[in-house]
Design goal:
By secondary structure, this protein is an alpha/beta fold. It has 23 helices and 20 strands. The protein has four domains: 236 residues, no CATH class; 161 residues, Response regulator (Rossmann fold); 143 residues, Reverse transcriptase/Diguanylate cyclase domain (Alpha-Beta Plaits), CATH 3.30.70.270; 77 residues, Arc Repressor Mutant, subunit A.
């Protein structure tokens, strides 16, 4: 019988609080013989940063069909909307789901009993130390969690007849500065200094203790301070804070119990964390264990920054060399049983596809395996359950894939994993760039299948494909003509830039499985289904948009041909057309005012919405309107006004084809103030209304 599997969707799994929850989940799941798979980002999810948020694509890998239940730790997310796609999948699949520390419609929620915890803290101060003058510092007044925690303290006060009034309840923001602000009120005498202050989280308690101590107010001799949550880092503050562990481990176990129908109880007997901020003082064994964990964490951070690791990865020339170095330095992962590198099959290109992956089992001498869905290791037979961590490998806005760490006991990675993952992502990008450099060195010669500069098929391969295509189809040809003086002026590199830009534009036009070929240095062929009229028009629009913003006929002249003839005939036809166009250009260059007229025309093509009126255009040449109108038409074979209209319509066609802009927005972008006038002029030029044109796909 296959082992059951639970998915955990969280953020920053290395965070101490989330790690505690995950360990509780793993303990309960392992007790029931169930695997756990954790999906988590790595970096600072609190920052709204496009580069960091890109790693949240890790959540798109989650597919409910592979799991028997799911757990979402909602409290870990600043913005739960990053999980919209995953939540939609869960609802569609009707997969049993539990939300920890938050609520999502249709799912069961699990919370820690904050109120009971705070009641226990207040009861400790009252019954153990005899305090009756106690203040409370909690979060924002409108925050439900803040109010619930304060209510727990007040409940203890009522239970033991301790006098309490609203002026002893202070609101903050759950951060250090709230504690510092309250301390200043005590120091200045604005507020009476009580016997004790209960802070409903540790960060506010740190701020309070630090500020009071700096002002010479002794803690706990003058005032005792209690924290809550035990979020870590208390050894960096004075005095050592007394706190209380939130029952996060049991929260995780409770979520599993709901999903599996079990009754596992986590060991949470040592929830009270003794320190020097109340008269109890520290407990030696507890403090020693805490310091030991801190030293281990610091050691891991130091070890994860070993320069040799990054240096060795940087020197790799192939993926095989790269994975062998990862295996050699696997000890940096501190106890992980297995490391898997799962790269998108297009990891070394500009596009992340996310459909098929290369499965590299680091440390195993096996070749990478292609797979869809979940890594094969999750389906292997094992004697005991395992917890897997899925983490993104992300460089800038490039997602290469993800890593999988597995552990045979309830644990996870710590903060040092962020440094390890960053080194892996950086060096993968370096490896990709090495291959790109090698690729660029081959740009002047063709490979066995593809043209190196554009990625299109070469002529021989294209001919073989064209011979096997059945049904009606059409060939379209594009030839780039380079005037000799333009080549002399701009150089060969500029010519390569133009060829690459043209190839990108043609690719953008190919939305119907068209097949592209670079027949020779400056001829492109495209095989498309049907009569090809719509595709040819779309290709002209894309090429016009790509070229008009950067080049004009002094650098490149684009010629077109289309038909059902042979490849050779079409290449000959487009070459003849290009020679005719170049001849027209040569004649045009001899005309008076050519250079100035072309500058005006180029600006119109780049930004037709800013095209100057005829009178302003004539003034730029310092000629009359009538003379300008005549020389413009003589030079370009079209009137100035009609050229402006055509340029606006071409831009409108591009926007209608490539964007979801409203018709009104398109009209405004093309320089029209009246949408109806735009629609009428567009129909006169294209034979279609803007809406009809968008519906036909360009």
């Amino acid at each position: 019988m296959p082992r059951k599997r639970i998915a955990v969707i969280t953020a920053r799994a290395d965070d101490a609080e989330q790690k505690e929850i995950i360990c509780g989940i793993a303990e309960a799941a392992f007790n029931a013989g169930t695997d756990v798979v954790v999906y988590s980002n790595i970096y600072n999810h609190w920052a709204e940063d496009e580069q960091l948020n890109h790693e949240n694509m890790i959540y798109t890998l989650f597919e409910p069909c592979y799991f028997d239940g799911a757990i979402i730790t909602a409290e870990a997310f600043r913005d739960i909307s990053v999980l919209d796609e995953a939540v939609h999948k869960l609802r569609k699949a009707a997969l049993p789901t539990v939300v920890i520390g938050g609520e999502l419609d249709g799912f069961t929620s699990v919370y820690s009993d904050d109120e009971a915890d705070m009641e226990a803290i207040a009861e400790h101060l009252i019954t153990v130390h005899g305090y009756t003058d106690i203040d409370i510092l909690t979060g924002a007044e409108e925050d439900e969690t803040a109010c619930r925690r304060a209510d727990g303290c007040i409940k203890a006060f009522k239970k033991y007849d301790v006098t309490f009034s609203d002026n002893k309840l202070h609101y903050g923001n759950f951060w250090n500065d709230s504690g510092e602000a309250l301390a200043q009120c005590y120091i200045s005498g604005e507020l009476h200094l009580p016997q004790a202050v209960i802070c409903t989280n540790d960060f506010m308690a740190y701020g309070l203790c630090d500020a009071l101590t700096a002002a010479g107010i002794s803690v706990p001799e003058k005032v005792a301070v209690m924290g809550y949550d035990h979020t870590g880092g208390r050894i960096y503050h004075y005095p050592l804070l007394t706190s209380y562990r939130r029952n996060r481990r049991q929260m995780g176990a409770d979520a599993v119990n709901i999903l599996l129908g079990t009754e596992y109880h986590a060991n949470t007997s040592d929830r009270f964390v003794y320190g020097d901020s109340c008269p109890c003082g520290t407990h030696q064994e507890q403090l020693i264990n805490e310091l030991l964990l801190e030293r281990i964490g610091q050691y891991h951070v130091i070890m994860s920054n070993v320069a040799q690791f990054s240096s060795r990865l940087t020197m790799c020339r192939t993926l095989a060399e790269y994975t062998s170095v990862l295996a050699e330095f696997r000890y940096l992962l501190h106890g992980a049983d297995k490391l898997l590198l799962c790269l998108d099959t297009a990891w070394n290109t500009t596009d992340y596809e996310g459909e098929e992956f290369l499965y590299c089992d680091i440390g195993e001498e096996v070749s990478p395996v292609r797979y869809h869905g979940i890594p094969p290791v999750l389906d292997k037979d094992r004697e005991s359950p395992v917890i897997f961590y899925f983490s993104p490998i992300c460089f800038h806005t490039r997602l290469f894939g993800y890593t999988v760490l597995s552990y045979g006991y309830p644990t996870g990675y710590d903060f040092s994993f962020r440094d390890w993952s960053k080194a892996v992502a950086d060096t993968l990008e370096f490896l990709r760039m090495k291959n790109d450099i090698h690729y660029l060195k081959q740009c002047q010669r063709e490979s066995s299948l593809y043209d190196s500069l554009t990625g299109f098929y070469n002529l021989r391969e294209f001919r073989q494909i064209a011979d096997t295509v059945g049904g009606p189809h059409t060939l379209c040809a594009v030839k780039l003509g380079f005037p000799a003086d333009g080549e002399f002026l701009y150089g060969e590199n500029y010519r390569s830039d133009i060829i690459s830009a043209a190839a990108r534009a043609i690719k953008q036009a190919c939305i119907g499985h068209e097949i592209c070929c670079r027949a020779n240095d400056d001829i492109f062929l495209v095989l498309c289904k049907g009569d090809g009229e719509v595709f040819a028009e779309r290709m002209r629009i894309m090429l016009h948009n790509a070229m008009c913003g950067s080049y004009d006929e002094r650098q490149v002249v684009i010629s077109y041909a289309m038909g059902e003839c042979s490849l050779e005939q079409l290449c000959s036809e487009v070459t003849d057309k290009s020679e005719q166009d170049m001849a027209v250009l040569s004649e045009r260059k001899t005309m008076q005012h050519y250079s100035s007229l072309l500058d005006i025309r180029s600006n119109v093509m780049k930004a037709p919405e800013k095209a100057p009126a005829l009178v302003q255009a004539a003034k730029r040449l310092c000629v009359s309107e009538g003379y300008f109108r005549a020389v413009y038409k003589q030079c370009f074979g079209i009137s100035y006004n009609q050229d402006c209209i055509n340029a606006r319509v071409m831009k409108a066609c591009y926007l209608l084809t490539t964007t979801a802009m409203s018709i009104y927005a398109v009209a405004v972008s093309c320089g029209y103030e009246d949408e109806k006038y735009f629609a009428r002029q567009f129909r006169q030029s294209t034979g279609h209304s803007p809406m009809q044109y968008r519906g036909r796909g360009g």
